[in-house]
Amino acid sequence: MALLLCLLLLSAGRVSGNDSFSEQTDRSRLRAIKPVILHSEIIPEPASVPSAHASTIVETGDGILAAWFGGTYERHPDVSIYTSRFKNGQWSEPVKVADGVQNESQRFPSWNPVLFKRDNGDLILYYKVGPSPSTWWGEYKISTDEGKSWSAMEAIPRGCLGPIKNKPVIIPGGKILYPTSIEIVGKWNVYMEMSNQDLTDWEKIEVDNNGFDAIQPSVLFHKDGALQILCRSKNERVVESWSYDNGKTWSPLAPTELPNNNSGTDAVTLSGGLQLIIYNPVTSGRNKLAIAGSYDGKIWEKLIDLEDQPSGEFSYPAIIQDKDGIIHVTYTYNRERIKYVQLKL
């Protein structure tokens, strides 16, 4: 019996040692990654639009398209959705493409645009309209010409909201999976939605929030077919959930090792399998913004600081990878403009 116990303990020690060695190997590999900034600038905006926030970005066949909401200030009824295109090294003049006008006497602010390209090449612009995040509803427009023009507004079916801040993804089988959440007084709650690519047959998928106040998930793909969401929270940590059945069910939310300052993040799975998150690497303030990397979604290492200032707000980022492997980032710059950064690893 003593010999058996000894062997079991030795075996456990070897497993633990292997796990520790694997973690150190991953961290060493991640620390060896050296992102290079290729381009960085503030996207021009008309002087008549003094505030900008909550950007989104997508690759098109005619350059990189960004969108954000802008107006007098967040929640003002004049806040609308604007787009600008990065082509041949320059950003185009921003164009207003959506607003919250209801009729001649009523207008609500617009919020949180999300750009997405479906398999047929159409662009979809999802956004919110309403007096506040607790009362808003989801709308969308479709472009068949790379975002140069947009269809009339369509409402997302009642009971669903569409993507809240971060881009949806297409999962095996062709459906669109939407990372979404609600913000009601006293409670935040993450969940998921799914629809066909023609934006029919919407369904809502519950996620056990496990006592966390969390919103604004983003979706990552893993080599074993698992899906992971990373979410903003009020709990000083980015929180996560996992699905092993193509998004039909999800594990209870749990904290990651990543700090969170109750501000939005975004994440992307690169073509080679590396996971990236862009986030504020602090638990308070929004004066720092960074990108971290992971191979397994568990072990994270900060790869680069994009902003590290004594004060200011650098927040609500968006991140994508284009067909050539270049990484594109946008984020709020002091609530006045949207900043664009282009990187390679």
UniProtKB/TrEMBL annotation:
InterPro entries the UniProt entry points to: Sialidase (IPR011040), Sialidase_sf (IPR036278)
Keyword line: Signal
Keyword Disulfide bond recorded: no
Domain Sialidase: 64-329
Signal sequence extent: 1-17
Keyword Nucleotide-binding: no
PANTHER family: BNR/ASP-BOX REPEAT FAMILY PROTEIN, BNR_ASP-BOX REPEAT FAMILY PROTEIN
Protein name: BNR repeat-like domain
Organism: Proteiniphilum saccharofermentans
